[in-house]
Amino acid sequence: MRAVMMYGPGDVRVEEREKSRIEEPTDAVIRVTAACICGSDLWPYRGAEPLGITPPPL
Questions:
Q1: pLDDT category of residue 13 using cuts at 50, 70 and 90
Q2: Does 8 score more than 60 pLDDT?
């Protein structure tokens, strides 16, 4: 599957990632057909806020 990953200020990449799988009875895999970015996502993109330890998928 494809994911948009933010690695650092101004460093956003579209990557192929491992497919999600169901491991627990309460898990679900969904298909996303549209998405958007919240205005607060621009703070780490601009370097005004840290990203954290693991790059979050957008």
A1: very high
A2: yes
Closest CA to 8 of 38, 50, 37: 50
Range of the domain at 30: 2-46
- What is the C-alpha to C-alpha distance for residues 6 and 45, in angstroms, rounded to an integer? 8
Overall number of domains in the chain: 1
Identity of residue 22:
I
b (16+ CB within 10 A) / e for 2-26: eeeebeeeeeeeeeeeeeeeeeeee
How many residues are listed for the chain in this entry?
Answer: 58
Is residue 57 one of the residues assigned to a domain? no
Q: How far apart are CA 14 and CA 37, in angstroms?
A: 14
